[in-house]
Design a protein that fits this description.
10-stranded mixed β-sheet, transferase activity, 16 strands, Aminopeptidase, BioF2-like_GNAT_dom, alpha+beta, GNAT family N-acetyltransferase
């Protein structure tokens, strides 16, 4: 099967994002509107996959920071992989991965790091790329564990979470307002510093920019007491997944169980919207080798189960 590779340029941006809306497995993280917020932080290596002059797939990618011999799909996103609309199945996907290898080899690249799109984000089964990577000798080098609720078949919510929500609802109200972002970011920044001696990956200004570009996909739900934000969750919403990109609670929020109120209301809202999954995100450290089991169990008590985020390395 003839798969031609075309290097991405800014002239492709509109066609790229139009294609993402038609794909079986693309989310906002694949779009140029999202990836472009990084500016010049990464050296882009994205490509379009063509067959007989027609677009059949997209591959968002950039060179690894500090090592121009490695291409990652994509270093500025949680996952990447080939976005397609169903034509790249079976042998065609094997050929597509082969075409990517040839393209990057010709440009001196030695290794491709492929961050698989977790299956929950696909509209239909779309893991042909995982099989194709196996056929090309790729090795799985990292695996993170996310906790996800299947909103059609939710496991029972634990009694502890039910009690905490009842307690929280006596004092806490939950509201949806992106205008609360600065207050939420202050809670998030304090929480990460207190608990992990860390800072958010994004800045408040970056999230505000992305929210302005994706007002339907990027939204905020906050727990409020006396008009003060004490906890919240920043959501990245796709066609069938509501994903908790950032979760934070102040010490006051912890005392009253504010996150239980936020998650309880938001999970119900996600189900009513027709979404299939509510995803809490991963609970890993040290490139997947350490699981924060307490955090994972907290998430799972809302009725969730495990979803793997896989990373593969393909020698070029």
């Amino acid at each position: 099967m003839n798969i031609d590779i075309v290097e991405y340029t800014a002239e492709h941006a509109q066609a790229w994002d139009d294609w993402c809306r038609e794909c079986d497995n693309a989310t906002l993280l694949h779009t140029r509107r999202f990836l472009s917020y990084h500016g010049a932080r990464f050296e882009d290596a994205s490509v379009l996959l063509m067959n007989e002059g027609r677009l059949v797939g997209l591959f968002p990618a950039a060179k690894a920071t500090g090592d121009p011999n490695i291409v990652v799909s994509h270093p500025g996103a949680t996952y990447g992989g080939i976005a397609h609309a169903g034509w790249l199945q079976g042998q065609r996907m094997i050929d597509a991965i082969g075409a990517l290898k040839d393209h990057y080899r010709d440009r001196g690249i030695q290794k491709l790091v492929y961050k698989v799109v977790p299956y929950i984000y696909a509209q239909v089964p779309s893991q042909d790329d995982v099989y194709a990577l196996f056929r090309h000798g790729a090795q799985r080098v990292r695996c993170d564990l996310s906790c996800t609720i299947d909103l059609q078949h939710q496991r029972p919510v634990s009694e502890r979470r039910k009690r905490a929500r009842r307690k929280a609802c006596k004092t806490v109200s939950v509201r949806a307002a992106i205008d609360d972002l600065p207050a939420f970011w202050a809670v998030l920044t304090e929480t990460l510093a207190r608990r992990h001696e860390a800072v958010p990956v994004h800045t408040s200004d970056e999230i505000a920019l992305l929210a302005s570009r994706f007002p339907d996909e990027i939204q905020l739900r906050c727990a409020v007491v006396d008009e003060s934000v004490i906890a919240g969750v920043l959501l990245f919403r796709s066609k069938n997944v509501w994903h908790a990109q950032y979760i934070a609670s102040s010490e006051r929020g912890n005392e009253v169980g504010a996150l239980d109120a936020v998650f309880g209301a938001t999970i119900e809202e996600a189900r009513a919207s027709g979404a299939r999954y509510f995803d809490f995100g991963t609970s890993n450290e040290s490139a997947g080798l350490v699981l924060n089991d307490g955090l994972f169990r907290f998430k799972s008590e809302f009725g969730g189960g495990g979803v793997a985020h896989e990373y593969y390395e393909l020698a070029i």
